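quick one if you have a minute, typing this from the bus. theres a chain ive been looking at and ive put its sequence and its fold in token form underneath. please have a look and point out which stretches look like helix strand or loop to you. anything you notice is useful, everything is just below.

***
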Amino acid sequence: MTEPLEKRLEKAMAELQAAQEAVARTERQLRQASFTVLSSDRAVRATVGPQGELSGIEFLENKYRAMSPQELAASVLEAANAARLKMNRHVMKAMAPFTEPSSGIPELKGFEVDWERIFGPEVLRDDDEDTPRDTGATPAWRDALGEDGED
């Protein structure tokens, strides 16, 4: 025996209200989020805000004084991009529950989000692919500068 339409509507409205409250709560939390990342050469620390905007740069231990402008720029970009990627993944994980259909009300389907189109393909790669590994390999930013990383 199927449930009366009024009961189904009542359940759907309650679930919709709960979803709206959860979205509002998630938005409040995301507005407060920030991520800070250290460059692989440990010369720069970059912080991004909730929309991926660069909100802080620190030059550590005066390492920048011995760096060329290109090396410093590469370190800043590396740290800022890594922090932005962490923020993008944080947003993606925080919003994931809203992309899934309702378990109790099949008519309430989740919404589809093309995260790759919004944030770029790197956001879908595993987190461990983005963390530097101690393989002895030259960092990509040094390759771009044609340097081997040795002093």
Notes: The first strand starts at residue 35 and ends at 38. DSSP finds five helices and three strands in the chain. The CA atoms of residues 97 and 110 lie 8 Å apart.
